[in-house]
Design goal:
alpha+beta, Alpha-Beta Plaits, 4-stranded antiparallel beta sheet, 11 helices
Length: 386
Amino acid sequence: MTELATLGAEFARHYGHSPAWIARAPGRVNLIGEHTDYNDGFVLPMAIEREVLLAAAPNGSRQIRLRSTAVEEPETVELSQPVRPARHGHWSNYPRGVIAGFIERHVTLIGLDLLIHSSVPIGGGLSSSAALEVATATMLEAVAQRPLDPLEKVRLCQEAEQRFAGVPCGIMDPFIVALARREHVILLDCRSQHARYIELADPAVAVLIAGTNVKHSLAHSGYSLRRRQCESAAQKLQLTSLRALAAGDLANAAQQLDAESLKRVRHVVTEIERTQQAAAAIAARRWSEAGQLMYLSHESLRSDFEVSAPELDTIVAIARAIGERDGVFGARMTGGGFGGCAVLLVRTAAATSITERISAQYSQQFTVAPTFFVSRPAVGAGMVHR
């Protein structure tokens, strides 16, 4: 049974009628440019071929009823009163925040039955939350027949995650999920919000995502702490953001910062440079150069930003040992860190043997097996026309 057929059958089972609309939004993987988005820097993400599907139908009430195929517990959002967050950490806060954003923008909403089905790994740093938010926004646009300005839609989803889920996220995730193009990565300037689309269509080269299937306890608090450290360092240096600091200024900055703050700043400044260099390398199909920049990014995230994990380091080390001769151009952790996924740039023909070799060596050190999938750059969110 296809994902759409599964969604339709589950919708009918829960609600007793068929969906009238289906929206979709992809997850994303960031090839390089980690922890630079909230520092006004550059990122280089692409949408992946895993997605959130959201089915809906009117229910004639003043309630939006929420269900997920992954969770038995239903949720209800009352449209006749202000929309508030559910308890901290609850999955419904992502669609709740988007619903609230539409109401605040004076978009009239009707009562709906909603069912969510996702193939995006949760907690893997692949933007399952942004996919859910953008899918919800795409659905509400269609139902209300009120399309938002694309950047306004992106900002609404970012606000939803910040206000309702309590995650101080940057703009990268909702931007790529909403506005991705097939067979392209995006070099996104998070300060100007200008996007440059770069083709990644060579069938001989693939993006391999390796999930560690672990998430360490520091994941949420560590992300917030790193953001505060970057903001504090920018204040000490009297900068609006770390984007304003050039690599040549690091020596002067070292005189004003403690050792830990300097490490955080050094990662951000050098990562912004690496991201632009990697974009140029991919545009020119210089895969070896792009891969080496990915390795340098991982080392910076491990040693200067200190957000990696043993599982991620192991995957990257195995990938480096396999080397370009056997199909690996480069590898790095992706996402906020402390577990989650690694991303590898590989030769398509070698992807299966690479996954087998990494799995075999990884299992000698860890009890939880990694999972893998290959993805082409996918298209951004939209409505599904059946």
